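User: Just a sanity check before I run the rest of the batch. Below are the structure tokens for the first item. I only need the designed sequence back.
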């Protein structure tokens, strides 16, 4: 089953305009994401799907492949559908363009899960929360899991709510914003509707509210995404530390 990695990268952003082009240690963020993805062994091909020629030109300048997509897509997964319409890949992985520390092994794990699970249409990932501050942040999405690791719900709120005291971090699962779709599930995505998606601004709720299965693989990954300009300093510090440890 051929696997295509897709990095949706839009130019407009309320909190951080032109985010994919933001410099991190002298290189644009989208290049850091691309280079991480290229280390994955289960992807057959990789592409950046963007709505802006400046981002496409940047990707091509470092040897990456970029395709232009419409500017009116409401989510990254909707943007992926436009790519899928002209690419017959059986598995398509949505890798967010603001995850410059995405672990290549996480990408591989999701692709392998779909290849081994014939009845699963979508797979994503979770990890542990670092502290209570992160748990309580609306930028950190929480997952409630059911039997067998299937997602029951995603929320920016703290769920389950710790009614009888302080939350026990071991009982909570932090969502990592990456999705591996089986082709049929992705192509169905734009035709679905979800009130919960509009309320939470979480595209994955569109699948759950329409009865589609999302499997969650769990691990100790701790990628550091970039939601706001101030997050770049933390990512740069991690990259410097990792570089020093490698000698």
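Assistant: Here's the designed sequence for the first item:
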């Amino acid at each position: 089953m051929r696997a295509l990695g897709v990095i949706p990268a839009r130019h407009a952003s309320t909190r951080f305009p032109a985010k994919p082009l933001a410099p991190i240690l002298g290189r644009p963020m989208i290049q850091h994401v691309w280079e991480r993805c290229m280390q994955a062994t289960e992807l057959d091909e990789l592409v950046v799907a963007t709505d802006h020629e400046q981002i496409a030109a940047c990707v091509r300048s470092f040897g990456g492949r970029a395709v232009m997509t419409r500017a009116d897509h409401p989510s990254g997964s909707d943007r992926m559908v436009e790519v899928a319409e002209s690419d017959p890949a059986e598995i398509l992985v949505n890798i967010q363009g603001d995850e410059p520390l995405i672990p290549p092994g996480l990408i591989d794990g999701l692709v392998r899960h779909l290849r081994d699970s014939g009845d699963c249409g979508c797979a994503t990932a979770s990890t542990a929360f670092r502290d209570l501050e992160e748990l309580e942040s609306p930028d950190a999405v929480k997952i409630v899991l059911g039997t067998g690791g299937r997602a029951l719900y995603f929320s920016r709120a703290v769920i389950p709510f710790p009614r009888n005291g302080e939350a026990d971090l071991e009982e909570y699962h932090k969502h990592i914003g990456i999705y591996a779709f089986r082709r049929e599930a992705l192509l169905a995505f734009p035709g679905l509707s979800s009130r919960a998606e509009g309320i939470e601004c979480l595209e994955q709720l569109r699948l759950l509210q329409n009865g589609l299965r999302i499997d969650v693989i769990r691990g100790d990954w701790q990628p550091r995404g970039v939601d706001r300009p101030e997050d770049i300093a933390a990512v740069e510090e991690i990259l410097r530390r990792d570089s020093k440890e490698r000698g």
